[in-house]
Amino acid sequence: MVPQSWLDHLTCGNILAVAAFFVAYLIAVYYRNRWSVYKNIPPGPRPYPVVGNLGGFLVPACIRRRFGQRTGRPDLHPTEAFAELARLYGDVYSLFIGSQLIVVLNGYEAVRDALSHHPEVFSDRPDIPAISIMTKRKGIVFAPYGPVWRKQRKFCHTTLRNFGLGKLSLEPCIQQGLATVKAELTRLSEERGAAGVDLTPLIGNAVSNVICSMILGQRFHHEDPEFHAMLDLMVRGLEICVNSPAVLINVFPLLYYWPFGVFRELRQVERDMTVFLKKSITKHRQTLDTDNPRDLVDMYLIEMMGRQAAGELDSSFTEDYLFYIVGDLFIAGTDTTTNSVLWILLYMALHPDIQVKVQTEMDEVVGRHRVPSLTDKGSLPFTEATIMEVQRLTVAVPLAIPHMASETTEFRGYTIPKGTVVVPNLWSVHRDPTVWDDADTFNPARFLDDEGQLQRKECFMPFGIGRRVCMGEQLAKMELFLTVTTLLQAFRFELPEGKPPPSLRGRFGLTLAPCPFTVCVSARTLNSESNSQ
């Protein structure tokens, strides 16, 4: 006789064995069905279990070692990593974050083909946990493509145009901030002398105040501690999302609530920015005059109340949605343009011969006593070409904002399943050797024709292309031109003697910011110019 306890033990063991087999079978069926969808996807490195290709910014260890040994830089930059992967797998390749398929598009032809020729398929936004937790998939930048997004974007674009977007009427607002920058640069250059000046806070404040005047109806003093803190938080938050262990939130979303390290810091950044923006919206609601709207927030509140009065219960125009729109415009209207201006001034300090050519052209067209105007753009082709060349080499959002395939489609011989995250690598477009001669060299003349006139190139797309092209493109172009010309008219920028020049690889976050640097700023006077020559 077999003891009853043995029978009980065997029965329990059998049950556990059957359960384990059943779970294993279900997992196998799940992955078999899932991978059958990925049968004809673009080639790419083999993903690791659970994390996919997440390690080292999606770069397999073999590539990190090989590239690091060859260049002497084991800290592989994301743009370099994606370029190396393109050399191995082609202009369209696959990666995985966890089980999420990502298709990276490299080079001008692949990016243009997807975003210009297949806009209905590749204009959606993916549900990326780290972003979705903070934005609730609302606003303009990260909201899904569809009727709600189109309605909100159209309203915001129309409203911003009414407040001067892309028009000469906005020029005085931009110049007001630049007058403060010039005065502060004069003071700081005298105080700090050969140590140099950090341009970031001054440029960031001036740029941000332009969009703040349009959406919040106010300007902030450059020494306002709360506003200065918000600008710092914005930069730090963007960097954490892309360039820290917080990227693991996209594989394990619960890490967002981890009470330590960068996860805790990211939540604090979100809380502080939320308080700042919601306080401004509340103040607008309390002081709203429907007959005299001051800015975009006022216009949105008026539109929202009108739709509610008309009985549109399912309207997407809500104060909650407004909060995310304001956040999008505040960040997008500040960070990218600020970084672009800083890059341009850094390149001018690194290439004094180009700086002199720009200033000579300006002296001939604008002179020293009249403030540059947008009406001068057509008469300053070399200046415009220089701005464009720096934008080409230091594209503000190098990997663009991720897109998503809204349906399964065939693209360049591969199957792109519905829900695939699509990354247009704009950095690779601007370094594509098939469309740019000597692509890694700084050469403003590439944007000029034989007669010295500016020529536009389709392969130049710092603001993206397609239906998700940057809504603030015209505003950014205005600010870049006026800021660069106004400062170069008044000052000469040089690197401090005895200090090594900053790396041109930049700091990679959602945007590409220059590494911290200082410049010696000196006023351009006729006497100093003639002596230097």
TrEMBL record:
Pfam families: p450. Its main location: endoplasmic reticulum. It is found in: Endoplasmic reticulum membrane; Microsome membrane; Mitochondrion inner membrane. One of its GO terms (biological process) is lipid metabolic process. This is Cytochrome P450 2U1. Keywords: Endoplasmic reticulum, Heme, Iron, Lipid metabolism, Membrane, Metal-binding, Microsome, Mitochondrion, Mitochondrion inner membrane, Monooxygenase, Oxidoreductase, Transmembrane, Transmembrane helix. GO terms for cellular component: endoplasmic reticulum membrane; mitochondrial inner membrane. Its EC number is 1.14.14.80. The keyword Nucleus does not apply. It is a multi-pass membrane protein. The keyword Oxidoreductase applies. It catalyses: (5Z,8Z,11Z,14Z)-eicosatetraenoate + reduced [NADPH--hemoprotein reductase] + O2 = 20-hydroxy-(5Z,8Z,11Z,14Z)-eicosatetraenoate + oxidized [NADPH--hemoprotein reductase] + H2O + H(+); (5Z,8Z,11Z,14Z)-eicosatetraenoate + reduced [NADPH--hemoprotein reductase] + O2 = 19-hydroxy-(5Z,8Z,11Z,14Z)-eicosatetraenoate + oxidized [NADPH--hemoprotein reductase] + H2O + H(+); an omega-methyl-long-chain fatty acid + reduced [NADPH--hemoprotein reductase] + O2 = an omega-hydroxy-long-chain fatty acid + oxidized [NADPH--hemoprotein reductase] + H2O + H(+); N-[(5Z,8Z,11Z,14Z)-eicosatetraenoyl]-serotonin + reduced [NADPH--hemoprotein reductase] + O2 = 2-oxo-N-[(5Z,8Z,11Z,14Z)-eicosatetraenoyl]-serotonin + oxidized [NADPH--hemoprotein reductase] + H2O + H(+). PANTHER family: CYTOCHROME P450 2U1, CYTOCHROME P450 508A4-RELATED. Its cofactor is heme. Signal peptide: none annotated. One of its GO terms (molecular function) is iron ion binding. A cytochrome P450 monooxygenase involved in the metabolism of arachidonic acid and its conjugates. Mechanistically, uses molecular oxygen inserting one oxygen atom into a substrate, and reducing the second into a water molecule, with two electrons provided by NADPH via cytochrome P450 reductase (CPR; NADPH-ferrihemoprotein reductase). Acts as an omega and omega-1 hydroxylase for arachidonic acid and possibly for other long chain fatty acids. May modulate the arachidonic acid signaling pathway and play a role in other fatty acid signaling processes. It comes from the Eukaryota. The chain crosses the membrane at residues 6-31, 240-258. Belongs to the cytochrome P450 family. It comes from Salarias fasciatus (Jewelled blenny). Heme binds at C470. InterPro entries: Cyt_P450, Cyt_P450_CS, Cyt_P450_E_grp-I, Cyt_P450_E_grp-I_CYP2D-like, Cyt_P450_sf, Cytochrome_P450_fam2.
